[in-house]
Amino acid sequence: MRNICMLGTSPDSKGGIGTVVRGFNQDLKLSRYRFIHVITHRDVNSFGKIAVAISAYLRFAKLLKTTEIDLVHIHSSFGASFMRSLPFIRLAIRMDIPIVNHIHAGDWSVFYDRASDNKKKLIIDTYGSCSKLIALSQEWANLLGTVAPMSKIAILENFTPIYDNAHTPNRSSRRVLYMGRLEKEKGIDDLPEICHQVACSMPDVVFVLCGEGPLKSWIESEFSKRGLSKNLSCLGWVDGKTKLSTLKSSSLFLLPSRFEGMPMSILEAMGLGLPVVATDVGGIPQIVQNRSNGILCAPGDTEAMASAIVKILGSADLYSDMSTKSKSIAESHSIPVYSSELESIYDELLGARR
């Protein structure tokens, strides 16, 4: 067995990266590799985050000196996550250990396009120094290819830890589920208008929001102003059995994001057969095939998203067909499939070092 030092947020962290890391911790079983996990981030205050990062760096440095680490696999994103990754990447480079930088996306226009020349150089140098960059979709691979050689980039779409082929979702409950941060970047500010338009045709529709964020109070206020309070259920952050039961009681999954990588939430919903209405951004079109297992819309097009929800929930035949196709696509993103693809990436990097 060869040792992989896995750097990333706590598996208890909220959000898609936390879900991925939790899957690495609990579900991924590789035949030739063993993970040693180092937590570099937790959902705590700013001082707590600094303390966690320093502690992680010290543990990482000790590991590299006392344990035979064959490869470092770091989960990162943009902004603060990118900056947190730098000391770990630089130390691994000094120790001549291959680095897989697993990039979980973000807003490229803010991260790179609008960055200063010095910041752009730092990004190019950092990504160029990694042995392999993992992109979640072809679109993100193309963006990363503007700052790093394409030969260093591998596409590895996310997996779904939730998959139940026996479950049949309930169309008649008319529960439209959203899971994620309640923030503008996720298109949350479009929900009141979407719900208003759907409720005109389906007065009993309920929008179920699972997550926390800066727009939670605003959402509740906007729904109330429109007389839609009965059509809104805010559950806060859910996980484990509560997440599973919420998914199973839902009819359809909605993700109106402005940008995305490869959303874990969509894959989890598809694993239980939910049709999807989402925006055509990031890696979403690779898992939501338009008019096959869901309907894709332009970001901000509330009329199109509302119309898509009504169309899917209003037709038993269309709903059943999309549900079946969601499960089929989710099966191709199962943990065994993902594990095999990940091992191939490790094999490519470490084969020449044996």
UniProtKB/TrEMBL annotation:
Key words, A-Z: Glycosyltransferase, Transferase
Signal peptide residues on this chain, from the entry's feature table: none
Coiled-coil boundaries: none
Transferase as UniProt keyword: yes
SUPFAM superfamilies, sorted: UDP-Glycosyltransferase/glycogen phosphorylase
Top-rank taxon, per record: Bacteria
Gene Ontology MF terms in the entry: glycosyltransferase activity
Residues of the Glycosyl transferase family domain: 166-327
PANTHER family xrefs: GLYCOSYLTRANSFERASE
Full protein name: Glycosyltransferase family 4 protein
Organism: Collinsella ihumii
Taxonomy of the source species: Bacteria, Bacillati, Actinomycetota, Coriobacteriia, Coriobacteriales
